[in-house]
Design a protein that fits this description.
The complex is a heterodimer of chains A (64) and B (410). Chain A has 64 residues and is of the alpha+beta class. Chain A is built from two helices and four strands. Chain B is built from 14 helices and ten strands. Chain B has a five-stranded mixed β-sheet, with helices on one face. In chain B, a hairpin with a 2-residue loop joins strand 6 (307-309) and strand 7 (312-314). Classes of the chains: A alpha+beta (64), B alpha+beta (410). Chain A: Its cofactor is [3Fe-4S] cluster. Chain A: InterPro entries: Fe-S_cluster_ET.
Chain lengths: 64, 410
């Protein structure tokens, strides 16, 4: 599955990094960056959690 | 005839409930029973505030998240219909970007997000562990009983935010006392205004020093934005004031109220005391954030365009109040919500709010609470309340809920 991140919506809460550290990181200002665009079954649940807890609705998980 | 009744018969005083409602005696950790009843009745209801205004109270998780994430709601206290917590003092300043909307909110917030990034916060964990160990050493070396608030819960986050901002910790009594006044609901507007102005003047002085002589701290970084012409002195001072207050008062209340809650739930306390699993400690932090809720007066917004939600239309110019405490007890999201269970997955709680204003310092708060909950009860396994639970005084009268003091022994 594909992860989409709209970084201009990010409010630097860091919630995605806590939920899915292998998929998300933060730049020097705390704004989210995507480490993996394609995620396999092992990481999908973590990304779903990140989608759910992102306060700015900046993350989407897209079926391919 | 003169005494003929014409027109509609005046209704009896209607049943719009007053907000905030009192908690039940002996249930200091639970939301007010009246709030839970309103939640059972539906997701939206009108309430009456201190000034007679009647904003909407939003009682359920899904609707709270939807509204807090909606760009048609405004956090600007000057927006028509904004439900204020208390009478503001004329000319009172704003607490920086938490009382602003995008794009200005985002512009200012992004100036101070860097130190709260997860990796930066994790790098502080060993220093926070040393502070916690030192405070516990002092506690154990001192007399019993001791007040956990004064000797542990308040010093820890104050020391950490002082270090981060570059505020001398020696001045802690000054800003802690003034913060107490600023968050005290029964303080007069003049008293709150005066306390805020004194801390603001103090921080303005420190910012002036950092402008002339920058260091490696957040105040210097804010001062740098002034030098660059991105913000003025007043904006810089408001930003520093927000970070100082939000950085110590909230976490302090979570430490003391959380410890009191655990002492009243010995089975849960035992789980924490006997674990060395960081995942269980992290889970306990999320559950205590869900179960307790210190911002009990709710997140408040004004609606700027009509919003249709849950079969209602909230009109432009109406206020909305999201009491996250009740959303965190929504049975549709958290089964058996009134049970404290540190093993449950509570990560989707909204204790830090939701939407673009969600707490900026949450990674720091989480890390401090993880260190505290993972250390205090293991180091002092016999920790016990020194007074019966009914003698503990709760901050019903403050904007931020907690305990005034927590006498403990061991």
């Amino acid at each position: 599955m594909k992860v989409e991140l709209e970084a201009d919506k990010c409010v630097a809460s860091g919630q995605c990094v806590v939920a899915a550290m292998q998929v998300f990181d933060q730049d020097d200002d705390g704004i989210a960056i995507l480490l993996e665009e394609q995620v396999g079954p092992g990481l999908v649940d973590d990304v779903r959690e990140a989608v759910a807890v992102c306060p700015a609705a900046a993350i989407r998980l897209v079926e391919q | 005839m003169a005494d003929t009744v014409t027109g509609p018969i005046p209704e009896a005083p209607d049943a719009v409930p007053e907000f905030p409602m009192p908690r039940a005696d002996r249930c200091p950790f639970d939301p007010p029973p009246a709030l839970k009843e309103l939640q059972e009745q539906g997701p939206l209801t009108k309430v009456r505030l201190w000034d007679g205004s009647e904003p909407w109270l939003v009682t359920r998780y899904a609707e709270q998240r939807a509204l807090l994430g909606d760009p048609r709601v405004s956090a600007d206290t000057d927006s028509p219909g904004y439900p204020t917590k208390a009478s503001p003092e004329a000319g009172e300043g704003k607490l920086s970007f938490i009382m602003m909307d995008d794009p200005e909110h985002a512009r200012l917030r992004r100036m101070v997000t860097a130190p709260f990034a997860i990796k930066r916060v994790e790098a502080l964990r060993p220093a926070v562990q040393r502070i916690v160990d030192g405070l516990i050493d002092d506690l154990l070396a001192g007399p019993r009983p001791a007040d956990l608030v004064e000797q542990f819960a308040l010093p820890l986050p104050s020391l950490v935010i002082c270090e981060l901002l570059g505020v001398p910790y020696d001045d802690h009594a000054f800003f802690q006392d003034h913060t107490k006044t600023m968050v005290h609901r029964d303080a007069t507007p003049e008293q709150r205004g005066q306390a805020g102005r004194e801390v603001a003047a103090y921080l303005a002085g420190l910012l002036g020093k950092r402008l002339a002589d920058p260091r490696e701290d957040l105040l210097s970084s804010i001062a740098g934005r002034v030098t660059a012409g991105e913000i003025d002195h007043r904006q810089a001072t408001e930003m520093a004031l927000l970070l100082l207050i939000a950085g110590h008062e909230t976490t302090a209340n979570m430490i003391a109220l959380g410890t009191h809650a655990l002492l009243q739930h010995p089975d849960q306390l035992a789980l924490l005391r006997e674990t060395d699993d960081p995942a269980l400690v992290a889970s306990a932090v999320e559950e205590l954030l869900r179960y307790l809720h210190i911002t009990h007066l709710g997140r408040r917004r004004a609606v700027t365009e009509d919003i249709e939600i849950a079969g209602q239309v909230i009109k432009a110019g109406e206020g909305v109040i999201m009491v996250n405490e009740i959303a965190n007890r929504d049975p549709d999201v958290f089964p058996d919500p009134d049970r404290l269970d540190i093993t449950r997955d509570a990560r989707r709680h909204v204790a830090f709010g939701f939407g673009v204003h969600q707490c900026l310092g949450q990674p720091l708060a989480r890390m401090e609470l993880q260190v505290v909950y993972g250390t205090l009860y293991r180091r002092i396994p016999t920790l016990a309340s020194a007074v019966p639970p009914e003698d503990v005084r709760f901050k019903h009268d403050a904007f931020i809920y907690g305990v005034h003091e927590l006498p403990v022994t061991w």
